[in-house]
Amino acid sequence: MLFVKQASLVNRKGPILLHDNARPHVSQFTIRKIHESDYETLKHPPYSPDLSPTDYHFFKHFDNFLREKIFRNKEDAVNTFVEFIYSRTPDFYCNGIGTLVKRWKKCIESSGNHFD
């Protein structure tokens, strides 16, 4: 499904990085490491609350999944993360990526201004 709807996101040589413009993310050290890692980055407006990764798709669902869970050690946390990943359908990921692309385009088109 992702191959059909967003082929340009699949037919890449490596990961695509979308992160905000916080100082640690745009430091010369970070930029150099991203370049050395051969990651492609997406342009990000200077201020765009509409793309906040902690409020968006994956993390919102993951946060709900983690509610009331207790981890006694690192292995419990890792196993719970893996359980979450496998509990989602391929459509969950396709829809999230597709919606992110649309939101990202709207942010770029609105020059980072908030939109509904």
From TrEMBL:
Keyword Methyltransferase: yes
Lineage top rank: taxon: Eukaryota
Gene Ontology molecular function terms on file: DNA topoisomerase binding; double-stranded DNA binding; histone H3K36 methyltransferase activity; histone H3K4 methyltransferase activity; single-stranded DNA binding; single-stranded DNA endodeoxyribonuclease activity
Keywords: Methyltransferase, Transferase
Keyword Membrane annotated: no
One Gene Ontology term from the biological process aspect of the record: DNA double-strand break processing
GO CC, any one term: condensed chromosome
Name used for this protein in its record: Histone-lysine N-methyltransferase SETMAR
Organism of derivation: Habropoda laboriosa
Lineage of producing organism: Eukaryota, Metazoa, Ecdysozoa, Arthropoda, Hexapoda
